[in-house]
Write a structure and sequence with these properties.
Elements: E1 18-19, E2 23-25, E3 33-38, H1 42-61, H2 66-80, E4 82-86, H3 91-114, H4 117-120, H5 125-146, H6 149-174, H7 186-193, H8 202-218, H9 228-249, H10 261-266, H11 268-279, H12 289-300, E5 317-323, H13 343-347, E6 352-358, H14 366-375, H15 388-391, H16 400-406, E7 409-414, H17 424-431, E8 435-437, E9 447-448, E10 451-452, H18 454-466, E11 473-479, H19 506-529, E12 536-542, H20 553-557, H21 566-571, E13 574-581, E14 588-594, H22 595-605, H23 612-623, E15 632-634, E16 639-641, H24 648-665
Parallel strand pairs: 5-11, 5-12, 6-14, 7-8, 7-11
Antiparallel strand pairs: 1-2, 2-3, 3-4, 6-13, 9-10, 12-13, 15-16
Length: 683
């Protein structure tokens, strides 16, 4: 066999003296050799031919650069021709080179495959470093079992890359990423996977090429440890150190679950790990099934009448509208506009309860507001940044939907956007909706900017109401899209006639014009139902305030978004609401409440007997009128406080609330059939 040997002189900046031919390093007082040769072998021709044929097949089926194909063929043959000789007296040096280099390549490959060029550059070096550590942990775990550094690299890289491809295809299917919580619903995901066509882009192909080159290269590294126990001890220590570094640097990092935010903000692997962290919710201090039994006894004997309406309003049609980004920015400070933004909503008085409610989110994560309204639970007791729909719903939760279904209502969800948004197509069947209507149900010519209008959603609600069966009781949950951010583009189909007087920003003015459009649509909705003979109740609220140019906020509050007191901060989480009926109900102004109380208030005004959990919430609202992810409003102190600052009766109610929520969501073994009966029914 003919062979060509290439001798190279190098100098490494490692603290080790270097001298060659080949590569000679001092390690522990020795001069271990590291030799690189290019060596011809007929077997390499066969392996290279197979790899290139597979690459050509990929080229025929997937559109990517011919230059990449040629470069891959050349590099693969070159790598297969390499012959390495490693001095086995210094295995940890070669192992660290392999593991660190492999972890960096794995992290790069996953990020590159999942993100387009614009988003690929958005991940900070700090987050990328934490992702490399996540990979390094996997490498060391595999090493414990293989005792072969080259084999470890192959197994770890292929496994992690396969994991990245799972996320790649899941994102193609549903528009958001594969998370730890998806493992619980893997059966549902597999059941619909056959409806989708697997498609690979050019970035995925290049990552496969890199993986093939990497595997071919590390197969040349034959590194084994004679002292297996020592190797395993050091591996465990490396794993522990990496975990400590990740935990310390990611303690305050939020899990991101909207589209690909998790990948470009945190890095996919780190974001997945954060999802694992957020999935394990510990029981509140003092929690026990006996505590829940005590609460059951209190409400089993409760004969209080919570209804605020009369006998004439029996079984009304109930319409809940969660309006995207609808808010009243005047709560932040002095907001003067050229014309009134919401003249109709402002004029509502007769048979109307209205005021302000605390949301738990600002600028995004709509489903958390949706969940707080329907369930009566609060984000106050869940990890900051978590999204209930994508992390915590694996069975049928007790909600206003389940309560009304038990009363014979047909429950209908309408959302004029894609069903995969926030995994609603998976969550809504769990919640128990009888009908679910998404973007294809609506007239997609009825758009404002890029989204279907509020009015089109309301028209579809009216149409379904008019087509109801005899004596059919209806509950609608409508989630609008019209006002969704961002607000920087200009549109021919949307004249922006409303604006802030004085200094402002274009995105803020566009948003203000959208708010007025929402007011007009509400006017049409209520005008219609004010003329029908059957009783109707409409609950309307914003999900969160919009995210606008950060320079806009100092104009309103004099500070901006940082350095705020707790009272000032909560103003950013304040949204308007109203409950209107076409039958007699008391007129009421509510200075502040929170979204978790609204469904209870709606049931009260609908004349429907409150379930036990809603009775608890109605009583708690008397003591703690508002609570959200940031804190709560203290009646005794007359200000907002953090939950851990609560004292006396307020603290007692918050603790009981926390226990009941934990019981309903996480303690499946001891879940209360009294407070949460619908959870225990088979679907």
């Amino acid at each position: 066999m003919n062979s060509n040997i290439i001798h190279t002189k190098l100098r490494f900046q490692t603290g080790f003296p270097v001298y060659m031919p080949g590569i000679l390093l001092y390690c522990n007082g020795m001069k271990p050799k590291f030799k690189i040769k290019l060596q011809y072998d007929k077997k390499n021709n066969i392996w290279a031919a197979i790899a290139i044929i597979l690459a050509v097949v990929m080229y025929v089926t997937i559109d990517f650069s011919i230059v990449a194909l040629i470069a891959y063929g050349f590099l693969y043959y070159l790598v297969k021709s390499l012959h390495l000789e490693l001095d086995d007296r210094c295995p940890w040096l070669w192992t660290l080179i392999l593991f660190i280099g492999g972890s960096c390549l794995t992290t790069f490959s996953i990020q590159y495959m999942l993100l387009d060029p614009e988003n690929f550059t958005r991940t900070t070096y700090e987050k990328l470093f934490l992702n490399v550590l996540c990979c390094l942990i996997v490498y060391f775990v595999v090493q414990i079992f293989t005792n072969n550094s080259g084999l470890t690299c192959i197994i770890a890289h292929v496994s992690l890359l396969s994991f990245g491809f799972v996320d790649y295809f899941v994102y193609l299917f549903r528009g958001n990423e594969f998370t730890f919580s998806d493992i619980r619903s893997i059966g549902t995901g597999l059941s619909v996977a056959g409806n989708y066509k697997l498609q690979l882009n050019d970035r995925g192909v290049y990552v496969i090429f890199l993986a093939a080159l990497f595997i071919a290269f590390v197969r040349k590294w034959h590194v084994r440890f004679t002292g297996k126990i020592q190797m395993r001890v050091i591996s465990v220590m490396a794993i522990a150190l990496s975990c400590v570094i990740i935990a310390a640097n990611a303690y305050d990092v939020n899990t991101e679950t909207w589209e690909q935010k998790g990948t470009y903000r945190n890095g996919y692997l780190l974001n997945y790990v954060l999802g694992i962290r957020d999935s394990f919710i510990s029981a509140p201090e003092g929690y026990s099934k006996d505590k829940i039994k005590e609460l059951e006894k209190t409400y089993q004997s409760d004969k209080k009448d919570y209804s605020t309406t009369n006998e004439k309003a029996k079984n009304p049609t109930i319409i809940a509208i969660m309006n995207e980004s609808f808010s009243d920015l005047s709560v932040l400070g002095d907001l003067q506009t050229n014309m009134p933004l919401t003249p109709f909503i402002d004029s509502l008085k007769e048979n109307t309860t209205k005021g302000y409610a605390l949301s738990s989110v600002f600028g995004a994560k709509t489903p958390n507001s949706e969940w707080e309204f329907m369930s009566g639970n609060s984000m106050a007791f869940l990890p900051m940044g978590s999204v209930v729909y994508q992390q915590y719903i694996s069975d049928t939760p007790t909600t206003i939907v389940s309560n009304l279904k038990d009363d014979g209502y047909t429950c209908i969800a309408m959302h004029p956007y894609y069903e995969t948004g926030w995994s609603r197509n998976l969550v809504y069947p769990h919640i128990g909706f009888d009908e679910m209507h998404f973007i294809d149900y609506f007239d997609q010519t009825k758009i404002l900017r890029e989204y279907i209008t509020d009015q089109e959603l309301y028209d579809k609600i009216i149409k379904r109401y008019e087509n109801r069966k005899n004596n059919e009781k209806l509950f609608f949950m409508g989630i609008t899209m019209q006002n969704h951010g961002g607000y920087t583009e200009t549109y021919d189909n949307f004249p922006e006639n409303y604006y802030k007087v004085g200094r402002s920003y274009t995105d803020a003015n566009q948003y203000l014009s959208l708010v007025h459009e929402s007011d007009e649509a509400v006017k049409n909705l209520i005008s219609y139902f004010s003329k029908v003979d059957d009783p109707v109740e409409i609950i309307f609220f914003g999900d969160h305030q919009p995210s606008l140019n950060s320079n806009f906020y100092p104009i309103l509050n004099g500070k901006g978004l940082t350095g705020l007191t707790e009272d000032e901060l909560e103003k950013l989480y304040t949204v308007p609401f109203f409950i209107w009926t076409n039958y007699d109900t008391p007129e009421e102004t509510v200075d502040i409440t929170s979204l978790d109380y609204l469904s209870t208030m709606a049931l009260e005004r609908a004349g429907i007997e409150l379930p036990a959990y809603n009775k608890f919430l109605a009583d708690m609202q008397e003591v703690v009128p508002a609570i959200n992810s940031r804190g709560y409003y203290s009646k005794s102190k007359g200000c907002y406080l953090h939950i851990d600052e609560a004292e006396g009766e307020e603290k007692e109610w918050i603790e009981k609330y926390h226990m009941l929520q934990y019981n309903s969501m996480f303690d499946k073994k001891n879940r209360s059939s009294f407070f949460f009966p619908y959870n225990l029914k088979s679907k």
